[in-house]
Amino acid sequence: MIMNDDMTHPQTPPSNDPMIQLFCSGSNRCGQLSLSDRSVQVDHFTKANLPSCVSDPSKLQLVRTLGENSVFVYNSRVIYALGYFGATNSIEVTHRPVFNDAIVQDIRQNQTRDMTSKTERTVKQLSCGFYHLIILDSEGDLWGYGDNENGELGLGHTNSVKGLVRIPFPCPLNDVPNSLETTRVIKRLACGLSTYVVTSSEEGDDLWCCGDNRTKQLGLGDQVEGTLEKVSQFTKITSNELRGKEIDDIACGAFHVCLLMSDQNVYCFGRNLFGELGIQMTFGPNICVPAPTRIREEFFVNNDEAKRRKRIVSVHCTSVNTMLRLEDDCFLVCGCNEQKRFGFEQPELEPSRFKVLPMPPQITKVTKISSGSFHFVFLTESNQLVVAGSNHFGQLSFGQKVTPSKATIVDPTDYCFKDIIDICCGNRHTLLLTRELESIQYEDREQLVRDLKKASQYRQLCSATRRYETNQTFGLLFDDPSTSDVKLIIDSSNSTVLHCHKIVLACRCEYFSSMFSHFAEKDWKEVTFMPLGDEGDNILIVTQFIRYLYTGSIEIGPDNAIGLLLIAVNLSMDLDSSFVSKVQEVIIHHLDVNNVLLVYRDVLNHISPPLSTTNETEDESKFLRPVLETLERACMVVCAKNWDTLVSKHKNDMDKFLSYQQYMAITSLKTRYR
User: Fold this and answer.
1) Taking the model in full, what pTM does it have?
2) To the nearest whole percent, how much of the chain has pLDDT over 90?
């Protein structure tokens, strides 16, 4: 993790900003979820506590860990930690600052040599392993925090240390002249159960290591005795395979390491028990690779030879897997495939080649990846959250501790439809940092009308954010005859008319954009618009749909809200995710015992028969089906929570609407909500 050090010092007043929120899922055994109850295991994303002394949460960053802990970086100047960092440094409930300039100054005063600095130090890089942190500050000094049982802090001993400690790096070595020490620049940090530091010099990159070596994960090969289980001082790996080469990326699991070189070669070393190194070897209980070994090209892919020629962008590791990210968002995975969690056929413990990870077809470009000890999380540019791997502790937020058989999109209801700005994984938990985007508003109605006449200006406003919410802005003009330039007739008797604006409709909906640009109606002052017919309820639904285009809000009952989704399908709309999210939110928020059966019936009517057998195209089916499946799940939950009331008041409707299979599915949920 490379930090930006171009920021100001944080202020001290506590934050109450409701726009930024933290969500968590998974195990909280060591308090790593920032929840007060350590006994809790959360199997769906739940709101957690941010560090209380943070004044501007928008400057928080989450840090990927491998252990039962969580780490936050604030404004590149303060590091907050939570959870287990060894017996002497555990932080149970309250976020504790483990690095800031005041702490560094206090340590400096106890140093024998002069470390006076005229500038405040900031966090340049940071890596968190299982039980320890390694920090590179803006002046090139290394700092450590946490467990040192295996010498992972590189202090030359394995004694416990309390609090932040400065690490003497580079260490004086017999085979390295002192004159070369000043030319080394620390390039990258990586931590697992051990610590790795990549340094750069004129001769190329060097890889230094210390810590746990039980599975040969230090990559020292013949440099140390075969029985040596820990190294407490940073030692340079002298492998001929790496000499004179540049390291572009490094990733660590608990017991193995993966290197991506500038020449696109990939090297791995350490434990290969689950095939996590992608190296074909004779299988055995203690199988290890003691020195950096190049993965031969034929081991990259065995089911798509074309993928072999794509450029590798980055490498990522869990404790039992290695993943290569290629251009065009192709992901290759090797290692543990327990319960076929990655969507391809492979024995659970058989070392194998890298295979293509099947991703959901509807996702957009991946913008961020985080890997924990047993799972991966992907964030896309359209705010989709995709998860893959183990879910034994609920870390994938599926509402139950069942591991999926493939990479899966997380239901956005789990994180309340917020805009995700950062993600991170830990040992058996996941954290999300989210934001509620502010609305664009006008106070001057006349200025709004003038801006509406500038198509380019309006389009710029619409594209300024993915989740565009007009609120009390363009809502001022909804059904306003004094400024309208087109009438929408929404019933067959011409008695119901909405006074609209072509520029608003065109910029908010591609259907209207085509209508007013290419269709014969482009110069008409009146247009008939009845996408659902002209029955009474449909008129209400169409009115609410047009209102949404103006206001960004939906004011309709859950029994009619599904009609809004049908309009989107009928118009082949390329709507942003906020529309679908709002419809889901309206339905789910207003579900109760009086309407849940009607909504459930409507949802099931559109799921069965399958959409692919109706008039909808395949793309339209992909658009609507995930939404309906989410609503089906919400209806089942409400039925399960209110089962006794439904049986006593709506038994006839239940017999009419619910099949035997649906009865059984809801019954299986009842025990969870008792």
Assistant:
1) 0.65
2) 29
